[in-house]
Amino acid sequence: MLELINVTRKVGAQTHIDDVSMTLSKGSLNVLLGPTLSGKTSLMRLMAGLDRPTHGDIRVDGKSVVGVKVQARGVAMVYQQFINYPTLTVWENIASPLKVAGVDRATIKARVGKAAELLRLTDQLKKTPLELSGGQQQRTALARAIVKGASLVLLDEPLANLDYKLREELRAELPRIFAETGAIFVYATTEPTEALLLGGSTATLSEGRVTQFGPTIEVFNRPADLVTAKTFSDPPMNTLSVEKRGGSFVHHGGLHVPSGPETAGLPDGAYTLGFRPHHLSLDPVAGAVRAEAMVAITEITGSESFIHVDVADSRWVALTHGVRLLEEGDRVPVWVHPDRLFVFDRDGRLAAAPRLAAAA
Amino acid sequence: MARIDLDHIAHAYKPNPTKPSDFALKEVHHTWEDGGAYALLGPSGCGKTTLLNVISGLIVPSSGRILFGGRDVTHLPTEARNIAQVFQFPVVYDTMTVHDNLAFPLRNRGVPEHEVEKSVRETAEMIGLSDKLGRKASGLGADEKQKISLGRGLVRQDVNAILFDEPLTVIDPHMKWVLRTQLKHLHKRFGFTMIYVTHDQTEALTFADKVVVMYEGEVVQIGTPDELFEKPRHTFVGYFIGSPGMNVLPAEVRGDEAVVAGTPIRLKSSYPPASGKVELGVRPEFVALSDGPDGLPIRVLGVEDVGRYRIVRADLSGTDLNVVLKEGVPVPASPRAVFDLDRVNVYVDSHLVEPVAGA
Q: What is the secondary structure of A40-52 as a DSSP string?
């Protein structure tokens, strides 16, 4: 078990990590999700022992490890860049941490064989890294991280430099690989979809703070605040600033959204409504609120279309199935169902989550 | 801007190529329209960068000619081709201001200063750096530096074409949305001929009017995003476009009957007799799960919840089958897979087969 207790790291006047507390249990997969410079790498360096916290404590199985050297910690890291020894074979690359640790030959042979099998490298063991595809090079780096039997494996955007199809393939295998090793895995990514595909738990990061930490799908369905909701939405979450007056949320441009069972009890005042792009519809939806929109741009992916529209003073994105050929400047009605709305209060805290998302 | 003719172009890096595998780029013969937005899409090693280098003039192809607006430029160096290029990593003069970085390609060509000023201001507005024109580039983040690179590519409107080589790789997902949308907008507004190399399907499909899918040195399909999605001409296109990709299932096809995993399926059309490896292609989006007696028996291996949809990973007598279920659609206890027959394609030796006419 790895515990971070009120961990802060400052460098000069800058706060890189701001009062982070989290507990990671053995055999768990933990995603750190946030944009560049949100603190993912800084947090991993603290977990690895490469940096020391300015305040707070880091404990492994209840004992403080602050000040314990990286080499003594049982930590392995995998980076975005494929880091292997270019002149060694794949077998020698995977075996290298065991050789350094003075493990006997028979054990090395057995463990390298097992790691290679887990990462589907058995046929590549005699090659050197440069003869491999990018995906295989990164598999080699992963095998080397796993073969040590480290109790903490840190992966810093390990798939970012791969073709997206290779990424898809390796990502689908990772949960199985993680489950077989029993280590604590920490996986940093900038991509919400990657977090969802990996599952496990997710910590959303913003400006050095962990804004929420919990089971991935729960954080997605019930983000604690607007910052978390925006971090965990791709395309970005649509928002609208409104004023609650009695039974409706009113936008100053004239849009009225009736409150539902979850939101009727909220006190009057300023709120931000949020909803995901696939819940903004270009077709009528029973019980939905209609708004007049102007098309800004249409992007088609084949299976889906992203329609960027201007509504009142906001730019929204609708993610719809199939191909929609709309031109810039076209006026179209759009619909959003009140049951799909996240409601955030004046301070950005979640006041109500959508009924349908929570039930699904 | 100019039309680009790729006239029987092929390229091999080794001298005296003989067999097909000697060619990094197998024969390409196409015309790309003036003002078109094209994306070259494929995995690493597919030949897309070789093709881009042929267009930019870094490579003289082993055979064939390349024409810009009807003029043969095959042997002209890059600087004589009047093109703009944007690369994966920012190419920016750190000691110059944002303004001077943007002005550089214009001043370099002796454009009068009042016109430079006008173009720089317009470009800065497009890329959202109007309020930073006076700042030194060295103080900016990677995102902003890459925006400057994009701006330098867009600042001259008299170029034959603008070539982009994976320009958004270093950009955050949220900013990718913004920049991609702006590029598309600029393309609509100014009608630049744009060629965009990427291995990212979303980038390619959302950016381009026509996507050029490459595989093992060959152009396997040029099509609009919906053509690539609905009618992949090669199983590789079906696999590469879409996430997860198209299911490709071993089958026997006789006339309008297909047999998959021992179960007969009545197809919507009749197919000519085939010799070779026969497969059915059906996208995960067009497979439904039923709890009735119809459909193919499958074994569910796992369900991934991606928020707005779920991916069901299943086994169909030894072949992987993926199913995409929309939000709120349940997975039956012992499901069978039912295909949307309007969306099933037949492949022989990986190539799409058209049904018999009138059948």
A: HHHHHHHHHTSS-
Query: Alpha carbon of A71 to those of A77, A78, A101, A112, A149: distances in Å?
Result: 12, 15, 10, 21, 13
By C-alpha distance, which of A223, A44, A322 is closest to B285? A322
Tokens standing for residue A141 = 């780096």
Find the residue in A nearest to B238 (Cα).
Answer: A302
CB contact under 8 A, A302 and B230: yes
Query: Which residues, other chains included, contact B183 with Cβ-Cβ below 8 Å and sequence gap of 6+?
Result: B150, B194, B207
Distance of CA A355 to the CA centre of its chain: 23
DSSP per position, B208-243: -SEEEEEETTEEEEEE-HHHHHH--SBHHHHHHSSS
Give tens-digit pLDDT for A106-115: 999 999 999 9
Q: Is-contact A302 B225, C-beta < 8 A? A: yes
Nearest C-alpha of chain A: how many angstroms from B170? 9
CB atoms within 10 A of CB B107: 13
A360 vs B contacts (CB less than 8 Å): 327-328
**B217, two tokens:** 């040195």
User: What is the interface pTM, i.e. ipTM, of the complex?
Assistant: 0.80
Answer yes or no: do A276 and B228 touch at CB < 8 A. no
pLDDT tens-digit profile of B164-193?
A: 998 887 777 777 877 887 788 888 888 889
Asked whether the beta carbons of A229 and A223 are under 8 A apart, the reply is yes
Q: Distance between CA atoms of A203 and A216, rounded to whole angstroms?
A: 8
Of residues B44, B283, B307, nearest to A196 (C-beta): B307
3-state secondary structure of A331: strand
Confidence of residue A359 (pLDDT cuts 50, 70, 90): very low
The values of phi and psi at residue A238, to 5°, are -80, 140
CA distance B344 to B328: 25
CA of B267, closest CA in chain A: separation in Å?
22
* pLDDT for residue A356: 56
- Judged by CB atoms closer than 8 Å, whether chains meet at A191 and B141 is answered as no
- Of the candidates A273, A275, A265, A257, the one whose C-alpha atom is nearest the C-alpha of residue A317 is A275
